[in-house]
Design brief:
Blueprint lengths: L8 H20 L19 H25 L4 H19 L7 H23 L8 H24 L4 H6 L2 H17 L6
Length: about 190
């Protein structure tokens, strides 16, 4: 089916996001321990267009991967809704960079993405169709909750390490995508 074409889009999204972030950090001079947030890459002259384009494209890939998961695992509609809201948040953050008049919109969009991740990972972990992946899904959700809480708290309360704080919530999410992709690869015949 058409949807099956999106099976590896989660992995593609991860690659695009990390290429954009790493090259963007190098080009903008942002370091992991910095007072400026990762969003700075999106406004720094040498990195803005490259970073924002890859940020947007990765969100498109993640969204298509979310549709693939929803269809192929027969997930709850609430999973798809929250997943897509998160990716739309990332798209808005990419289109309306951190600087200038849209700073508040950008920030709200980025927080929407960050908050959506543990919610859809929780909904996913409660699905009836996960078989032997259920334990992994629950552990990944707990890891996401911890990384999200530490990341957001660090971002709010500790100055000078914004980029690390922002990257933390993405890590369990990216691992989740990789492990689901591998699991689906192994288990081709779905039990409906």
């Amino acid at each position: 089916s058409m949807v099956n074409k999106f099976r590896y889009f989660g992995i593609v999204g991860i690659i695009l996001l990390w290429v954009g972030t790493i090259i963007g950090m190098l080009r903008s001079g942002l370091s992991l321990v910095d007072t400026k947030p990762i969003s700075y890459i999106g406004v720094a002259t040498d990195s803005a267009l490259f970073f924002n384009s890859l940020l947007f494209l990765s969100a498109v890939c993640f969204a298509l991967f979310g549709v693939y998961l929803y269809k192929s695992i027969n997930l709850n509609k609430s999973f798809l809704l929250v997943f897509l809201i998160g990716q739309i948040g990332q798209m808005i953050a990419a289109i309306l960079p951190y600087g200038g008049q849209y700073k508040i919109v950008h920030t709200v969009a980025a927080f929407t993405l960050a908050t959506a991740i543990p919610i859809f990972m929780y909904i996913f972990s409660k699905s009836k169709n996960l078989g032997n992946f259920k334990t992994s899904a629950r552990r990944l959700f707990i890891a996401e909750l911890i990384f999200f809480t530490v990341g957001i708290s660090t971002f709010i309360f500790i100055d000078g390490i914004s980029p690390i704080a922002e990257i933390l919530p993405a890590l369990p999410f990216h691992l989740w995508i990789i492990l689901i992709t591998v699991w689906i690869q192994k288990k081709e015949t779905w039990t409906r």
